[in-house]
Amino acid sequence: MRKLLFILNPVAGRKASQLTLYRQIELFSAEGWEVTVYPTRKQGDAERITLKRAADFDMVYCSGGDGTLSETASGLMRLGLAQPPVLGYIPSGTTNDFAQGMRVGGGLQYLRQCVRGGAPAPLDAGVFNSSYFVYLAAFGFLTQVGYTTPQSAKNALGRAAYFFEGARRLPEVRPYRMRITANGKTREGNFLFGAVTNSLSVAGLIRYDTDSVAFDDGQFEALFIEDPESPPTLTRIFVEAMNAHYSDPHVHLFKSKRIRVECGEEVPWCLDGENGGLHKKADIICLPRRLRLLRPLAGDKKGV
Predict the structure, then answer these.
(1) β 131-133/185-197 pair status
(2) Residue 153's pLDDT is what?
(3) Domain check: are 166 and 270 in the same one?
(4) DSSP code string of 83-108
(5) Does residue 71 share a domain with residue 143?
(6) Nearest residue to 100 (alpha-carbon basis) of 28, 42, 159
């Protein structure tokens, strides 16, 4: 019998995962899976249990927000296996940037398609200094909102909670003097925002052209915004970014396998929507096709 480790974050989003947990387990069991459920109790639990137990399972499914996914994926990568267990994901968080970009559905119909007729698809991941991430390494405006917004506010208000938190933190926005090296080129400047991504959006607000992003091409999308020293210009830049337009000369958008960001002071970074710590130097490397994500077969997109 195939063995499944099911990791559940019971406080993610508006706790919808609790309401359908029995039906999810019933679906796996009906398809011949022996299911072991582990509800997380605190931050870091998903990575810890994955690192400790995942090698004994054929697949690890996690239900929660982007943070739960990131911890589970990090645990799989830290196993050190040439081919770690397949990763499955049921998004039940508030923003779910990764799920939106990958068109990962949160309903039982999507899960049924994955379990009954799905296949693992290759997925790039990343390393940030000594930490792993799935889809986002970022600093600057918007990036701290995900982990500073209280969980109670996210449960009550959903995505709107991020807007309120972002508005509250707007006076704190300031540039960092940085040196950015990628693709054999170096640029120095005062940067307000930077994001290295394998996603179609950041914080559900900044968006990329869907035709330019591939999740398994061995490269990240890198977006860095210099300080225009003009509030109206900055507002226009972010409004354009919400519509995937990047024509301003203060905006630098490119692809790269490896990026180094250096600063004379410690900069707070965000990894997959969670606190990534303070760093003066960030070495960010794409790990091509490091993970395998369970997806419905091509062309079977109902309910996504």
Answers:
(1) unpaired
(2) 47
(3) yes
(4) SPPEEEEEE-SSS-HHHHHHT---SH
(5) no
(6) 159
Whether the per-residue pLDDT at 302 is higher than 70: the answer is no
pTM attached to this predicted model: 0.85
> Do the Cβ atoms of 303 and 105 come closer than 8 Å?
yes
Distance of CA 154 to the CA centre of its chain: 17
* Cα separation, 51 vs 31, whole angstroms: 26
Q: Is the pLDDT reported for residue 255 higher than 80?
A: yes
Q: Which residue has the tokens 């307000």?
A: 192
Least confident of 1-5, 118-122, 149-153, 202-206: 149-153
Which pLDDT does position 172 carry in this prediction? 64
**Where residue 266 sits, what CATH number does that domain have?**
2.60.200.40
Give me the torsion for CA of 231, 232, 236, 242, rounded to 10°: 50
CA–CA gap between residue 113 and residue 294 (Å, rounded): 10
Whether residue 179 sits in one domain with residue 66: no
| Residue reference for tokens 């630098």 | 252
- Domain containing residue 258: 132-289
* pLDDT recorded at residue 300: 41
pLDDT of residue 32: 92
Whether residue 62 is found in the same domain as residue 169? no
65 closest CA partner among 168, 136, 166: 136
Q: Does position 207 have pLDDT exceeding 50, yes or no?
A: yes
The answer to whether residue 304 is domain-embedded is no
Looking at the fold, whether 61 and 210 belong to one and the same domain comes out as: no
Dihedral sign, Cα of residue 122, residue 208, residue 73, residue 125: positive
